[in-house]
Amino acid sequence: MDFKQFMKNVKNEASDAVEVTKIKAKISKEKTNVKDTFEEIGKLMYETYRKSGVMPEEYKEQLTKVDQARAKINEYNAEIDKVKMSDN
Question: Rounded CA gap, 79 and 77, in Å?
Answer without folding.
Answer: 5
